[in-house]
Amino acid sequence: MSDSSSPSDTTGSGAESPVIPDDHEALSAAVDRYHRVERAVSWALALLVAGAFLAAVAAVSFWPGVAVAAVLAIALRVPIYRRRGSVRLRTEVSPGAVVREFASSRPPILAFQWGVADEVRDTGGEDGTATDRPTGTRAIYEFSYLLGLRSAAIDLETDVRADATPTGDERGGSEGDTVATLSIDAAIGDSLWGSYTVTVRETDDDDGTIVDVELLPTRRFALRRLPQGRVAERYYAETLAAQGYEVLDRTVSLTR
Question: Which of 183, 99, 106 is nearest to 139 (CA)?
Answer without folding.
Answer: 106
